[in-house]
Amino acid sequence: MSQTKVKSGLIDGGLGTDWQSTIQTSNFTAAAGKGYFVDTTSNEITVTFPVGVVGAQIIIQDYAGTFATNKVIFQANGTEKIQGSTDSVKCVVDNARCNIFYQDATEGWTADNFSPNPSTTTVSFIVVAGAGGASNGGGGAGGYRTGTLVASPATNYTVTIGAGGAGAAQGQAEAAKGTDSVFNTITSSGGGGGNRQYDGATTNMDGGSGAGGGGYPTTRKGSGNTPSTTPSQGNDGAGGAYGANYAGGGGGGAGAAGTAGVGTTPGNGGVGATTTIITTSESSTYSVGEVSGGAVYFAGGGAGGSKNDVAGYTPGTGGLGGGGDTPASRPSDGEDGAANTGGGASGAAFLGYASSAQPGGSGGSGVVILKYPSLTISNPGGGLTGNLNITSGSEKIAIFTAGTGSVQFN
């Protein structure tokens, strides 16, 4: 009959395993013949195997029942193998006990509850820049880019969230352009700032989407940025209507150009782009994008403003995706684009050239959203505001709403 042994203050049940009393809460290198309690409650943990010897055994026990939430990853020593491959493996079974044995140089370390740990993962992304502010013309939406990136574990990828541009008072200054947003090599350009009503300044009007032009002269409008990459980032803003009411044009959106001001009616902002990367419920829960008609929109253009911008006139409308709306009952100041939509601001009423003239709204800030089927994401070093590793069906999403920093997939 086997004798019960006591090792490290714990009874090993007669298996000859030297159980370690210290709970492992960070990466470590295991030793042959030992057992470890591993707690992944707060983070994933990587266990590195020692040099293999035929018949060597290591036991890993899920201490808190959290391997399915934060996996434990196993990697071999140097070029040695795990189950016949040099790739790392993982265990994602809550309360699992991994009984790990070294067979030989061909098969290496093996266990019955290991699963592949992909060396790369395909990440879907939306990168929306900050939108332009408004003056008489509406602000252009922030540049909108979407696509996929093959990401490698333990590699830093830069993320920056662009701020919206400031609005400007009528006749005093041109509104500010929005700030760029970045994910790795993907840069979305800030939306163009709306033009004032009476001069030809165009410094800030071009952007991810162009800004709306002022009511005078009629030819001034922004120009959407259409890079060589696909899809393009946005569309043109429209010109204003020259006349007694100085009806400003609408800013361009990711889905359509703005419309021109006509008579006493300012132009509408261009509609934003729709996405399926996040659901309408997720959009509402995390306050990103704009939900309409069962779809999620980003980067709508802002409406123009008009001298007749008072109750009872026909207002311009902000493009779906965060463009500042201009309901008939609103005050003469322009409205801000919504935060984390890349939506352009709406133009203000033109009530004079004085320094006290009403300001246009400020553009909505941008957002970066990532969706990935495997691995998890972290923000080493901080610097970013957002929500990480949100379960979305069979995948996960990360939503970044402010700041700049690096992210890693592990």
Q: How are the SSEs placed, and which strands pair?
A:
Blueprint: E1 6-7, E2 10-11, E3 18-19, E4 28-29, E5 34-38, E6 45-48, E7 57-62, E8 72-75, E9 89-91, E10 97-102, E11 109-110, E12 115-116, E13 121-128, E14 144-151, E15 157-160, E16 181-183, E17 186-188, E18 273-275, H1 280-286, E19 290-292, E20 295-298, E21 367-372, E22 377-378, E23 384-392, E24 395-409
Structural shape = rod-shaped
Q: How much β-strand is present in the residues?
A: 25-35%
Average predicted confidence as pLDDT: 85
Number of strands: 24
Radius of gyration over C-alpha positions, nearest whole angstrom: 28 Å
Please give the largest β-sheet: 9 strands, antiparallel
Q: What would you call the structural class?
A: mainly beta
- Regions with little confidence, pLDDT below 50 for 5+ residues: 1-14
Number of discrete helical segments: 1
The total tally of domains equals 2
> SSE order in H/E notation?
EEEEEEEEEEEEEEEEEEHEEEEEE
- Overall helicity: under 10%
Question: Can you characterise this structure?
Answer:
With 410 residues, the protein is mainly β. The protein has 2 domains: 6-116, Jelly Rolls, CATH 2.60.120; 118-410, no CATH class. The protein is built from 1 helix and 24 strands. The chain has one helix at 280-286, and strands spanning 6-7, 10-11, 18-19, 28-29, 34-38, 45-48, 57-62, 72-75, 89-91, 97-102, 109-110, 115-116, 121-128, 144-151, 157-160, 181-183, 186-188, 273-275, 290-292, 295-298, 367-372, 377-378, 384-392, 395-409. The strands form 5 sheets. Strands 13, 14, 15, 16, 17, 21, 22, 23 and 24 form a 9-stranded antiparallel β-sheet that branches. Strand 23 (384-392) and strand 24 form a beta hairpin. The longest helix is centred in the last third of the chain and has 7 residues, at 280-286. Mean pLDDT is 85; it is low at 1-14.
